[in-house]
Amino acid sequence: MNLAQKLVEGDVTAVITKQNVKLDALRGKHIFISGGTGFLGTWLLEIIKELNSTYDFKIRVTVFSRKAKDFARKHTQFDNLDYITYINGDIRYLSELPLDTEYIIHAASVSDRRLAASTPNAVADTIGLGTMQILRASNLLENLNKFILLSSCLIYGKQTWDLDSIDEEYTGSISCDQVGNVYAESKRFSEILAQSYLNEYKLPLVILRPFAFIGPHLSLQLPWAGTDFIRDSLLGGPIRIMGDGSTIRSFMYASDYAFWVLAALANGASRKKYNVGNPESIKLIDFAELIVSQFTPKRAILTNIGQKNQSKSKLVPNVDNAINDLRVSVTVPLTEAIERTIYWHKESLK
Amino acid sequence: MPNTASLTICDVTLRDGSHAYNHKITADQIYAYAKASEESGFDYLEVGHGNGLGASSLQVGESLLSDYEMLRYAKNVLKNTKLSVHVIPGFATLQKDIEPAIKLGVDLFRIGCHCTEADISQKHISFIRSAGKEAWGVLMMSHMASAEVLLEECKKMQSYGAQGVVLMDSAGAYTPSETSKKISVLVENLEIPVGFHAHNNLGLSIANSLSAIETGARILDGTAKGFGAGAGNAPIEIIAALVKKLNYPTNINLYKALDAAELAANLFSGSLPKSDSITIVSGISGVFSGFSKPVVRIAEKYKIDPRDILTELGLKNAVGGQEDLIVEVASVLALKSK
User: What are the tens digits of pLDDT across the range B81-95?
Assistant: First the structure.
């Protein structure tokens, strides 16, 4: 086993132990994960693998994705696990689910903002129509216990500067005539669609609204702050920040993210919605400093290279609902999360 | 009162000037001018075929030197000034052109495309950013789109990871008020720095450049003595003087910049741009400046007025890369004139 995979397995062991949350509702159950080959999907499989091998959970998983078979070929850590079934398919054309499906995590989406910029129609289609298709198919199941809809923190719109964090009742404004908001608006549509199924058909719905994450398996090709900073540092730097670095974000480590999703799947109350993320906020400049401190020689940080009228923004979750209802916590502090993410990427590049 | 907004000045003499020199710039010229550009303190020096990496061809003109040779000669000279290249997806491919340029030490890749086709820049911008290099987006022929459309396209490039975006007035068709209007929309709505690349067909390259920075642009392109396609670009030595007068913080050594311009006048004597009826009609027709030389050549062959070809190309909204259209237009005009 290579050191990168060893780190992930260590993270999985640690998160199950440290979270100390009962997931027994999932024992012997069949979970269907749409979009199960992305960052979150990979981590869900890593944790389920551990739950089955060490804790004898006997969970069965169906992974549905456009790249499911490719994923299976590339991720050899899941070789010969007969409880995982891979189905290649496009969520927009999903018509039926395995009849014995008991839990669903609907994570299929197009979250890459480059694609949202180039093909906004495809984003609306995949998120909107995709959600509609899986809801219709879910409605035909006899033993569905829980439907997790992976929404997004972007449905809240802009967080006002005076708020330290935003809870699940926050409503900011989003302009529906700006195509750049297609992802957020599509996610809002998917939420109201799912709420309609709850209302009409009593779908056992739990909505999760993820914020920002770092960790192994998160592609550094994605042009987000966390991935940009780490990738540029790995390649010798510098880190470039368009504004003065006063923008505020929060970053949760991958293993905590995936565990929180499983905790919501096992124990989330139907009709509830939960923010998922690290409630500890950090300025982008401080985040960049934490990253460059991991490298020798220390990478440069360039600020104010964008237009001078940069507006600072803030996006930090209040996760009291998740902590109180699901009994979850943040087990990997940000500094450690950064260390582990960089270590994993360095080892993966070898 | 000093101006607090710093400016990035890009010297594109050895790239845009390639158009004016039939793409035959020599190793000695690159070496000598790159040295002068470095001493002038310009932030970037752009080098290569006029249409960018991988563009040398029968259709748009063959370079005397390969991309690799041109970039290597320049890179050997540059220390503080960063080396940049112009990249048009289609001419330049990731493996054949961009990977070798990255290995050679090119610092900045400016990914250009027609002003309404930012989508085609995604793969290139992503690839370059993934390699840890700087990538900007460049919208060419930007006079052909409204401010709103340009903003949409720039936002795409920003989403792809571009760290700057430049509006090119490829036809020298802008006026100062149009420059101000378009740049201000970008400046107000983009996070990344905005730039302007002028051409001088209507004698407004410096006026337009000034309008751009006064509206908030943070990047300006220029060439020594305006050495560039068609009527040439904004003379970088005048930009250097202007930003000094206006107290913009830059790294420029004005006297060295003026010396570099004199050097360019010697190095490229006989090919420096001049205003004539072709460049003026090109400007008012909104036709890519790089078309001027082939238009004159083809007009002579078909025995028609080159200004008629330019006017017709303007009506057809011809864009860079459609050089084949010149012959088509010329042949139709020739038939009509019989």
Answer: 999 999 999 999 999
Q: For B160-175, how does the pLDDT look when each residue is reduced to its tens digit (9 = 90+)?
A: 999 999 999 999 999 9
| A158 DSSP 8-state letter | P
pLDDT, one tens digit per residue, over A184-212 is 999 999 999 999 999 999 999 999 999 99
Structure tokens at A235: 């390649």
Say whether residue A240 is in contact with chain B using an 8 A CB cutoff. yes
B206: CB partners within 8 A, 6+ apart = B198, B234, B235, B238, B239, B242
How far, rounded to the nearest angstrom, does the alpha carbon of residue A134 sit from its chain's CA centroid?
19
Could you tell me which of A252, A263, A254 has the C-alpha nearest to residue A334?
A: A252
Interface test with B, best of A115, A118, A239, A302 (most B CBs within 10 A): A118
Residue B301: partners with Cβ closer than 8 Å, 6 or more residues away: B330
Nearest to B91 by CA among B47, B70, B60: B60
Burial B177-188 (b: 16+ CB within 10 A, else e): ebbbebbbbbbe
Residues 6+ apart with CB under 8 A from A23: A51, A57, A262, A263, A266, A267
Size of interface A-B (CB pairs under 8 A): 65
| Domain range list for chain A | 3-215+252-278+316-332
Per-residue three-class SS string for B115-171: CCCHHHHHHHHHHHHHCCCEEEEEEECHHHCCHHHHHHHHHHHHHHCCCCEEEECCC
Contact yes or no for B161 and A228 at CB 8 A: yes
- Report the pLDDT value the prediction gives residue A44, as an integer from 0 to 100: 98
Q: Which domains does chain B have, with CATH numbers?
A: 8-267 (3.20.20.70), 277-337 (1.10.8.60)
Residues A210-266: pLDDT tens digits? 999 999 999 988 878 889 999 999 999 899 998 899 999 999 999 999 999 999 999
d(CA A145, CA A28): 13
Q: Does B124 touch chain A (CB under 8 A)?
A: no
Task: Give yes or no for B122 touching A (CB within 8 A).
Answer: yes
Residue type, A313: S
DSSP lists the bridge partners of residue A250 as: none
Residue pair A134/A101 in contact (Cβ under 8 Å)? The answer is no
- Specify the pTM: 0.84
Residue B84 corresponds to which tokens in the numbers above?
């940049």
Residues 6 or more apart whose Cβ sits within 8 Å of residue B75: B83, B104, B105, B106
pLDDT on residue B143: 95
Which of the residues in chain B have pLDDT under 50?
1-2
Q: What is the largest CA-CA distance in chain B?
A: 64
What would the DSSP string read from start to end of B64-98? Answer: SS-HHHHHHHHHHH-SSSEEEEEE-BTTB-IIIII
Q: In angstroms, what CA-CA distances link A227 with A107, A233, A300, A306?
A: 20, 10, 16, 19
DSSP state of A127: I
Residue A223: which of B4, B134, B160 has the nearest Cβ? Answer: B160
CATH topology for A3-215+252-278+316-332 is Rossmann fold (3.40.50)
Please tell me the distance from the alpha carbon of residue B287 to that of residue B216, in angstroms, as a whole number.
27
